[in-house]
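Quick start: load a record and inspect it. Here is Ion-translocating oxidoreductase complex subunit D:
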Amino acid sequence: MPLLRITSPHAHGPMSTSRVMQHVLLATVPGIIVLTHFFGFGTLVNILWGGIVALACEALALALRGRPLAFYLKDYSALVTSTLLCIALPPYAPWWLIAIGVASSVLLAKHLYGGLGYNPFNPAMVGYVVLLISFPVQMTAWAPPRGLGEVPGLFEALLACFSPASFDAVTMATPLDVLKQNNSLLLEDLWQENPQFGRWGGIGWEWASLAFLAGGLWLLYQRIFTWHAPVAMLVAITAMAGMFYDNGSSASGGSPLFHLLSGATIFGAFFIVTDPVSSAVSTRGKLIYGAMIGALVYIIRVRGNYPDAVAFAVLIANFTAPFIDYYTQPRTYGHARKGDS
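Running the structure step on this input writes:
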């Protein structure tokens, strides 16, 4: 009597690349809504224009490489890259700045190395660093948040993007930038003289960070990634800030809560550090990788030339990821560790 071939009821196929990318895009929605509320429609316009440029660059690269367009365009990887980059860009950035950044991410950081799965560096962070080094003035032109200035409407956002010469931009230094330039005021006095600091990490920034935290926790619940790298990063930056915090002198680098809720800390921990291609893959490796990024973010913020350092920290850690994986390979089941008797 032949045995029946019955598939186990608990067997499930792996989640596809396109499905993962859709989850990531969906998880960014709460943060985008908060950014739009506090800074206007600039971020949303950035994302829409950046997505168009990303799909065009992706199609061009696939055509030049002789790859099928429909199959690769449907994996949403180009849209994820452009969306993450455009979230990090200042609202009301000119169209050419967005186009250069997205093209650098898709063409240079992704397809130059062979496409999705072969890029050693995070594509969105490559595009961000290219823009930050090449156009520092435009990359620091952040609009004042709601409550400290007039928030432009949709028409003004479109005008700023596609006709920047006709848009009279009003910019304000970010809390990280103000703290970095401070060399005389106690933190308590600095907070009182600069209302953009808000309660914890800057008006708009702190709520956007909490919104990205909610999206990141949802991705963690969906098992898109594991907790190791993001938690290690947040613990490391908290430990560094707590270790060197001196209760608010003029030389202080800021409190742990400030570093967690200001800038791109939470966004980077859950949407950038967790990139499965350019990060470490072993469990211990992810912990080391995330902790390295957290420590580097604090060091560069306090001692470096750039107020927010997530992009630089991630690219440095990307470079070390293969080295970390080599020395943190798990022991093969049934084999003793080297040196064990």
